[in-house]
Write a structure and sequence with these properties.
209 residues; Rossmann fold; two-stranded antiparallel sheet; 5 helices; 24% helix; globular; disordered C terminus
């Protein structure tokens, strides 16, 4: 396979910026900020300054190429990156679809523009909103020789150290051309205390841009 490192696609909401739980609480490692975004003033975001440290450390190994895959677009570099100590990164233009659900065709709305952009590049993609067809797509790509890893954090907890560790091990395997790459995906734990357990329906995210 080609020697270029795989891409690492990073979402913002539900990944770097967790959704508030009951009572508006977020994990204590996240700090509150307010930003102006798409004509909305004082948009609340909760960000963990240590996320940049772990992603920068991973990037410095030369095993991944990070970029944004978020509806924040290029503004993630201005409004999010400085608060999490991340550098300026390229972004995938996802467009502005007129949709009322994140899965208008049964799979994540971002997948079509992401797939068009990636073509046959290897990728690890961190997003909180994958559906089963997205995992099927990732497996099909991998079976066709295009390593693809999906990491799905709990959107109320956001990105965790074990997610980055999973990306690191997978990327090392890809760069070494192991036969085992891409065979494992990270999903939220189906714990009954987990607010995103499968039997709990989440409403459309109208509270954030």
């Amino acid at each position: 396979m080609a020697g270029s490192p795989p891409y690492l696609l990073i979402d913002v909401d539900g990944v770097l910026n967790p959704f508030p739980g009951p009572g508006g609480s977020v994990p204590p490692e996240y700090h509150p900020h307010r930003v102006a975004f798409k004509g909305h003033q004082d948009v609340p975001v909760w960000l963990n300054p240590h996320h940049g440290v772990t992603i920068n450390a991973l990037s410095s190994t030369g095993t991944i190429r990070p970029l944004w895959a978020t509806s924040w677009g290029a503004e993630a570099n201005l409004l999010i990156a400085p608060h999490v100590n991340m550098p300026q990164m390229p972004h995938i233009d996802l467009g502005t679809p007129d949709i009322s659900t994140p899965h208008p065709h049964g799979y994540l709305w971002k997948r079509d523009p992401v797939a068009d952009w990636l073509k046959d590049e290897a990728v690890a993609w961190i997003d909180d909103d994958f559906a089963q067809p997205d995992y099927d797509w990732a497996m099909e790509r991998t079976l066709l020789g295009v390593p693809t890893l999906l990491i799905q954090p709990d959107p109320y907890a956001g990105l965790q150290h074990h997610h980055i560790a999973a990306v690191r091990l997978w990327a090392i395997a890809v760069m070494r051309d192991y036969d085992t790459y891409g065979s494992h995906h990270e999903r939220p734990l189906a714990d009954p205390r987990d607010p995103v357990a499968p039997d709990i329906q989440r409403s459309p995210r109208s509270d954030r841009p």
